[in-house]
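ZP: hey, is the flavin-adenine dinucleotide complex queued? I don't see it on the tracker
AM: it wasn't, my bad. submitting now with these inputs:
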Amino acid sequence: MNAFMRAGALTHMMIGHNHESVVNVQPDWLQELPLRGRLSVEEPMARHCSWRAGGTAERFFEPVDLADLVMFLRAAPPEETLTVIGLGSNLLVRDGGLRGTVIATAQAFDQINWRADHTVHVGAGVACAKVAKLAARRQLGGGEFLAGIPGTIGGALAMNAGAFGYEIWGLVAGVETINRRGEIQSRPASAFQAAYRQVAGLDQEWFVAGILRLTTDPTAAARVRSLLTQRRVQQPLGLPSCGSVFKNPLGDFAGRLIEAAGRKGARQGGAYVSPKHANFIINDGTATAADIEDLMLSLQQHVVQQFGVRLESEVRILGERAAPVATL
Ligand SMILES: Cc1cc2nc3c(=O)[nH]c(=O)nc-3n(C[C@H](O)[C@H](O)[C@H](O)COP(=O)(O)OP(=O)(O)OC[C@H]3O[C@@H](n4cnc5c(N)ncnc54)[C@H](O)[C@@H]3O)c2cc1C
């Protein structure tokens, strides 16, 4: 990053009464910190979320590597709210925005090290699809289901992402984490409790890498192709969404319940329920985060009223709602 870009990231244009001035809006603890990654203020999170909607992050930091992140964490005061994200494919940031710093991992932590014992050490910022495809090319199986999950390994570890009956924690031999003090730890899978789309065991810390255990399988590439075809047939891919919005209730499917409640195609502002897959909400390009969240609430109400089942969000909703616009 050149000096101009850094200066641009550290300052913010204020437009006042008939004059413009450039003021530094970063807090004291960030001044003079020689970070190499991009740091910005009021970053539109729609750029970083697959729903392409939502508010801004007060601060946004893309470390270039682990050392850059460690420097940032050591300087951050305890009261600074920190949110680590991958590719934002399971995130809704409310229109009122997110306080503190969002740390994006997808540009850093991009190393993949294949080991002779069929394990692979993968940085948290590596895309799941890349791991599945490279593994299949090496005739390693077990991770084929990751091919269609459009997030990072870090996001998948945090969510216990899964598909077609498989979940990522079924492959995990161990992980590396970093905490608020910038300390890195190697931990076995047994230190975490993974369940359906949730993982317990992280305490003010984040994944920086995962070690996945794969198996020799010459048919892995064919299975990746077949699972991707299945997705293309069943899901509205290529449109702004977050994949499945709700978790499947025990013994049923959220999409089936929403469809049975007659809500396919239902709309709220610029957000609508996909006619192809009722558990997908699509942004038509004009949706606010409130449109999406309100549509989710309305789907939950319809399903609970008609079937007595309370749908639970799979999507992580962060930040504050926008303040209502004052009317005269
Ligand atoms: C078209 C489509 C299809 C999808 N299909 C599937 C599917 O089949 N199965 C499935 O499980 N999901 C699916 N998803 C949802 C999503 O891709 C997964 O949840 C994915 O694992 C999220 O990864 P991410 O990097 O985008 O995480 P983000 O959305 O950026 O973050 C998700 C959560 O993880 C946390 N997080 C991110 N990185 C880290 C880290 N390094 N350490 C600690 N916490 C972290 C965030 O704070 C947040 O709470 C789909 C989404 C889309 C858009």
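AM: back. Confidence is low (pLDDT under 50) at residues 1-24.
ZP: great, adding it to the tracker
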